[in-house]
Amino acid sequence: xxxxxxxxxxxxxxxxxxxxxxxxxxxxxxxxxxxxxxxxxxxxxxxxxxxxxxxxxxxxxxxxxxxxxxxxxxxxxxxxxxxxxxxxxxxxxxxxxxxxxxxxxxxxxxxxxxxxxxxxxxxxxxxxxxxxxxxxxxxxxxxxxxxxxxxxxxxxxxxxxxxxxxxxxxxxxxxxxxxxxxxxxxxxxxxxxxxxxxxxxxxxxxxxxxxxxxxxxxxxxxxxxxxxxxxxxxxxxxxxxxxxxxxxxxxxxxxxxxxxxxxxxxxxxxxxxxxxxxxxxxxxxxxxxxxxxxxxxxxxxxxxxxxxxxxxxxxxxxxxxxxxxxxxxxxxxxxxxxxxxx
Length: 342
Known about the structure:
By secondary structure, the protein is of the alpha+beta class. It contains 13 helices and nine strands. Strands 7-6-8-9 form a four-stranded mixed beta sheet. The chain has a three-stranded antiparallel beta sheet with strand order 3-4-5, with helices on one face. Strands 1-2 form a two-stranded antiparallel sheet.
């Protein structure tokens, strides 16, 4: 089976399960976390990485992610407000369970397109624009005004299109009355890198999502009215929208930080021990060579240490006050490297 000229992995269902079996045998996923979705528009296997605890989406036969990432990088440079607004909205959707495309939620690239489209049409009076204004305008446009049943979003060039009149250029499909009703109930965003591709067709819960945007706009407007009237507000105006228990995020960050520190220390220890051994067995084992080796390996923060170096040069390059201070510091670093090795 092919769609848009791309062959999808669910044409060969056994392959998906072979990949699932391989992931299990490799031990890279947490037990019970693997979830294959072979019937998706872009087939994926979802799992949680055993080492980091991060959620992973593994896609097949689809190279559009590379092109989409280049587009995203271009938009980041062109629109400074893009990243902070997306960060808030991703959190907003995530705590409501509306960010998973496999169950009808709004995916990351579709959300990026919604924010970018808004920014493209706003007449900003400052650069960079006021982020609060951008966020309020986002909730206002998509929660109160944008009719996703009638209109779709075009990224290049920026604009909108009438969905029913444009069906013929999506997928080259002849839609029945029933399928047109189904498609009208979904968001339509023309792929900025291939105009005949609708990147948001899987977002079947768009009505609910836009309803929550409407609620968020009402809450922000109410909070701003209270603020302007001098009525005390409890905490941030965004509290009602994105407040929650962030302990799982802190735990995840600590897990990643501890993993990095552990791997970083182990790498430094291995490199330093190898370098010290190489210094001792090096054919150029004169004092100046050994001194340069020692300073280079124990002080990786010093760039461009020469191949040979005098004692006075080593003291100066290392920023030490005396030879004794340098020797004590390097001996301390050697002990730390040996302790890491053990």
